[in-house]
Amino acid sequence: MSILTQRSTRYSTLSISLHWLMLLLIAAVYACIELKGNFPKGSDTRELLKQWHFMLGLSVFALVWLRLLARLIRPAPPITPALPNWQAVPAKLMHLALYALMIGLPLAGWLVLSAAGKPIPFFGLELPALIGKNPDLAGNLKEWHELGGVIGYWLIGLHAVAAVVHHHILRDDTLTRMLPGK
After folding, report:
1. Cα–Cα distance for residue pair 122/164, rounded to 1 Å
2. Cα(89)–Cα(126) distance, integer angstroms
3. How would DSSP label each residue in the chain?
4. What does DSSP say about strands 125-127 and 120-122: parallel, antiparallel, or unpaired?
5. What's the rounded Cα separation, in Å, for the pair 44 and 78?
6. What gap in Å lies between CA 126 and CA 121, rounded to an integer?
7. How do the pLDDT tens digits run along the chain, 182 residues long?
8. pTM (2 decimals)?
């Protein structure tokens, strides 16, 4: 069996690194938007937290494509022992929902800024608007973006709980396949 066709019991180093980096980025995205409320509207700190929210969210958007490419090149290793179908199907749906979150939320945020006619900051660059200025649409998109953010809390929480349940109760290798190190 060649190294390209050999099945591993762990995710690739790139996939593992991106998983944990994106967890940190997503936590920072949520932290920025939650902390923003502690500062008065128009204050420098509030505006800085909003900018970091945008930039880190767009970083997640950029990295998710690299993550998908890594997954395409080297698919997920099988779980040992194999999951019964009643667990495998919801697990696949959860992963699809998480990828939709990592693509959809940053894209929705970009669309909100575009429709609001605001600049789209990205680490010293200003990204182009995706759509023309439309304040009504911006308001609607913002509501969907915020709802997606709340759904994201639940998806991320369920994902983490499932990993712990698989590790400590079901005693399979679901979690260890994604842990850094050997």
Report:
1. 35
2. 41
3. --TTTPPPSS--HHHHHHHHHHHHHHHHHHHHHHHHTTS-TT-HHHHHHHHHHHHHHHHHHHHHHHHHHHHHHSPPPPPSSPPPHHHHHHHHHHHHHHHHHHHHHHHHHHHHHHHHT--EEETTEEEPPSS---HHHHHHHHHHHHHHHHHHHHHHHHHHHHHHHHHHTS--STTTTTSS--
4. antiparallel
5. 49
6. 5
7. 334 444 688 999 999 999 999 999 999 999 999 999 999 999 999 999 999 999 999 999 999 999 999 999 999 999 999 999 999 999 999 999 999 999 999 999 999 999 999 999 999 999 999 999 999 999 999 999 999 999 999 999 999 999 999 999 999 999 999 999 86
8. 0.92
Q: How far is it, in rounded angstroms, from Cα 131 to Cα 24? A: 30
Q: What are the residues whose beta carbons fall under 8 Å from the beta carbon of 96, sequence distance 6 or more?
A: none
